[in-house]
Amino acid sequence: MGVVNRCEPRNSPFEFWDIGFEQIVLFPFLAKFKVGFRQSQFPADVLEFFTKITCDVMKRRMEDGESRVDFLQIMLDNKLPEDHNGTSNFSQNGGCLQSEKQGLTHEEILAQSLLFFIAGYETTASTITFLCYCLATNMAAQRELQREIDRMVDISYNTLSDLPYLDMCIQETLRLYPPATRILRACNQDTLLGHVNVRRGTLIAIPVYTLHHNPDYWTDPGKCLFQNGRFLPEERSSRTPYTWLPFGTGPRNCIGMRLAMMEIKVAMVTLVKHLEFHVTDDTQTPLTFRKNTILTTTKPIFVGLKLRG
């Protein structure tokens, strides 16, 4: 039976607000008008929900002295005093403007916490969907993944970190279907790149999808090849740098990368333990895509599900 990865009705607020989000991505200057008119990109009840959760956790950690090794703790450790006005002075350093403010305000911590969850919602869900599709169209890989997961005793951070074949399956899926087809970076100082002068402030678009499908860097780039060891350690070490960029790279890569990988692993381990994926008459092969910054298919992705015996 064909199953669509849709856990919300078609009038879901996630779909409604996704339109506004894409407008901001394509036309960033619109965000300034929203701020000027005190408009938020998110519904008030959503902001209230996340604000309450984050504030409760922050309060508990500060009052009880609780400390964890996570993103929120890093921000709390660098929180500015409550009497700080939140404004920044800037100094010139090598042609770059740098903020002299050392730390984060309460509002900035709330904003970053919200973004941390929002940024990984759709991208993680789409990666899980594409991976299920890849397994349905590649039964040999699915059998190998089943054997690896069946050997697990329980689901914990340590056991999830020791699933090399699942890691390779996820990495190959992210190569074929990167959630963001391109990423933007701003040049922070005048640079001579080859024979091209790049001025400070110039936006540089990095074509992630194109790099991931370039035959100069990948053998049979359009094929889903879980078994050929494309992401074995020795293969990764010999790969041309910066040709696999689903999370970006460098100091400004995706800050939610580890969280996203753990979410994908937990979901896939749970699914593969109990279900088998297979192609149905409604399964589209090959997939076709819309021309969006976020990779989306023109039609829903259908795969069949069957309980494992």
Key features?
11% strand; 309 residues; 12 helices; alpha+beta; two-stranded antiparallel sheet; 44% helix; Cytochrome p450; 3-stranded antiparallel beta sheet
Describe what is shown at a glance.
By secondary structure, the chain is α+β, with helices and mostly antiparallel strands. The protein has helices spanning 13-26, 30-36, 44-64, 71-77, 106-119, 121-136, 139-150, 157-160, 164-176, 208-212, 233-238, 257-274, and strands spanning 2-4, 90-93, 96-99, 183-186, 191-193, 196-198, 203-206, 275-278, 302-307. It has one domain: Cytochrome p450, CATH 1.10.630.10.
Description:
By secondary structure, the protein is α+β, with helices and mostly antiparallel strands. The chain has one domain (2-41, 120-307): Cytochrome p450 (Orthogonal Bundle), CATH 1.10.630. Helices cover 44% and strands 11% of the residues. It contains 12 helices and 9 strands. The protein has helices at residues 13-26, 30-36, 44-64, 71-77, 106-119, 121-136, 139-150, 157-160, 164-176, 208-212, 233-238, 257-274; strands spanning 2-4, 90-93, 96-99, 183-186, 191-193, 196-198, 203-206, 275-278, 302-307. It has a 3-stranded antiparallel β-sheet. It has a two-stranded antiparallel ribbon with strand order 2-3. Strands 4-7 form a two-stranded antiparallel sheet. Helix 6 packs parallel to helix 12 (257-274). The longest helix has 21 residues, at 44-64. The chain is globular. The protein starts with a strand and ends with a strand. 17% of the residues are buried. The model has no long low-confidence stretch (mean pLDDT 84). Its cofactor is heme. One of its GO terms (molecular function) is steroid hydroxylase activity. Keywords: Heme, Iron, Metal-binding, Monooxygenase, Oxidoreductase. This is Cytochrome P450. Belongs to the cytochrome P450 family.
